[in-house]
Amino acid sequence: MGRIAGRFARVEPRRRAGRLVLGLLSDLPRKNCWTIAEWVGEATPHAMQHLLCRASWDADAVRDDVRDYVVEHLHDDDAVLVVDETGDVKKGTHTVGVQRQYIGTAGRIENSQVAVYLVYAGSRGQAAVDRELYIPREWTADTARCQAAGIPTQRDFATKPELATVMIERFLDAGHRASWVAGDEVYGGNPKLRTVLEARGMGYVLAVARSAEVATKAGNFRADALVGRLPKPAWQKLSAGAGAKGHRFYDWAVIDTADPGPGHRQLLIRRNRHTGELAYYRCHSPQAVPLSTLVKVAGSRWRVEETFQAEKGLAGLDEHRRFVSWTRWATLAMLAHAFLTVVRADEHTRPPAPDDLIPLSCNETQRLFITLVVQPVHDPAHRLNWSAWRRRHQARSQASHYRRQAATQT
């Protein structure tokens, strides 16, 4: 918290931000201003809500501090920047950026809010270092709706690849370096993003659809049409990384492409060893690299799912309705998760644990930190006061709903 202290205009919001981060690290089953305010010992949630909506502090500067903190402690010359979006199912139409759209967490089209994240993935761990809320075109075309949600007037519509490009360039312009970028088909199918990465001298392994057109010396072909031209020895069994149940082994093959421009360009193909399902990746590297390197980068894409799971489960990432409060909440959730990731990474540099214990995970680090260091204990009066506050607030809300209903029926 000392690293971000200078981003606050007053000491009170700085201290309250520290308490909010502790609440995000807590074992509360649901994390919002109400539950965290009660957990840290405040009488009402109003001060926490003020911190997120109106207090004077620079969330983008804190975001930059989080990025610097992560890179400093997880530094890896072969790090991969993974771009991906995550969505959260929402009710109603007032939550900023919400619309009916496909989200991977539900596996279907839902009324949801979607954000794009940039994750720094190195050998010591991974953590989000940037975030951008996806604002659909139907929102940016409605000035009144944007104003009601607190979206800045200068915010224009931007696609998810465009948001990813902004975050990657922000990372590089800050003086940080990463060797590779990985992402799914949303990003691999965008030629502008690929052009920017090539101009910045970055390698990438980006998924593409099977219908993607690939240029070869023999002509242009769909990606899936090239699979039948591969001889059997072209496939190699390689691990895309360790998972919870062991290594993720697939069959892999690579084809050199004839796309113009400097560097080495290839089509990477992954085949499931049990189902035969195929996946395709456009690859670019400033210098020639072995197939194993491309496979390792492709496997880094899955690490972003672990980051989202941890940030939502351990740090309450998926909350808030207005643009300013979403930005601030997401930034502090990234900070909370980055803290757990760095502590875990530092613990792994110590003498190894006994053979019958796995290394500390972020989940176990959180449990130990809250239990041994900051577990708050509140007397019955505090709990009873909060019970009365909730019931009083709920009574006012219920009365308001009944008055509104009565007004519409007359």
Explain what the structure shows:
This protein is of the alpha+beta class and 410 residues long. The chain has two domains: 316 residues, Transposase Inhibitor Protein From Tn5, Chain A, domain 1 (Alpha-Beta Complex); 32 residues. It is built from 15 helices and twelve strands. The strands form two sheets. Strands 1, 2, 3, 4, 5, 6, 9, 10, 11 and 12 form a ten-stranded mixed β-sheet that branches. The chain has a two-stranded antiparallel sheet with strand order 7-8. A hairpin with a 2-residue loop joins strand 9 and strand 10. Helix 7 packs parallel to helix 9. The chain is globular and about 75 Å long. The N and C termini lie far apart (54 Å).
Q: How large is the count of helical segments?
A: 15
CATH-wise, what's the superfamily of the largest domain?
A: Transposase Inhibitor Protein From Tn5, Chain A, domain 1
The outline comes out as: globular
CATH architecture of the largest domain: Alpha-Beta Complex
Radius of gyration: 24 Å
Structural class: alpha+beta
Organism: Pseudonocardia yunnanensis
InterPro entries: IS701-like (IPR039365), IS701-like_DDE_dom (IPR038721), RNaseH-like_sf (IPR012337)
Pfam families: DDE_5
Protein name: IS701 family transposase
